[in-house]
UniProtKB/TrEMBL annotation:
InterPro entries: LOR, LOR_sf, Tubby-like_C. This is Protein LURP-one-related 11. Belongs to the LOR family. Pfam families: LOR.
Length: 173
């Protein structure tokens, strides 16, 4: 994926009108341990850090409000990959760790090496779904060009942060 800045890797999210909504960048190199999710103006919404664990991956998301990180020592969410060796499916458990809400709240489900995914809440309802985008004539546009459908009541920045983590799991960022 190409970055909006010269030295970095990232991607850009456009809405249905073609306006930039979100962008991600690591400002370093592919596979870096830290990625920034920003709004269209470049304001950081989440910093996503990969923690070192021997077998299963773990990513932490730190929420930003204004120019400062909320709860400097405590992540806003944590994503853990489950059983990567036993299946070609990628399954992750998402724990929200904000002050009011602690516990397993979402699952991310996809296929190894593929960008398509579903984010499912604790009740089994689909919160967001990303599929490979197709042109109006039905031609796939590329593995890294996705169509993201998000439920209207979902936190869009959190959904994008989780999609970003999924991209990191599959080495797409």
């Amino acid at each position: 994926m190409k970055s909006l800045v010269f030295h970095g890797n990232g991607c850009t999210v456009f809405d249905s009108r073609g306006d930039v909504v979100f962008r991600m960048d690591n400002y370093q190199q592919r596979g870096s341990r830290k990625v920034y999710l920003m709004d269209s103006n470049g304001k950081v919404l989440f910093t996503i850090n990969r923690k070192k664990l021997p077998i299963f991956g773990c990513w932490e998301g730190f929420k930003w409000i204004g120019n400062s990180r909320v709860g400097m020592e405590r992540p806003w969410f944590q994503v853990r990959r489950t059983h990567p060796i036993l299946s070609k499916d990628v399954s992750c458990i998402v724990n929200l760790k904000s002050d009011e809400n602690i516990g397993s709240c979402y699952r991310i489900i996809g296929l190894e090496g593929k960008s398509a995914l579903k984010i499912i809440d604790f009740s089994g309802q689909i919160v967001a779904e990303a599929t490979q985008k197709q042109s109006s004539s039905g031609v796939p546009l590329g593995e890294d060009v996705l169509r993201l459908m998000v439920e209207s009541n979902a936190d869009k920045s959190l959904v994008m942060a989780l999609v970003t983590v999924y991209g990191l799991i599959n080495n797409k960022l």
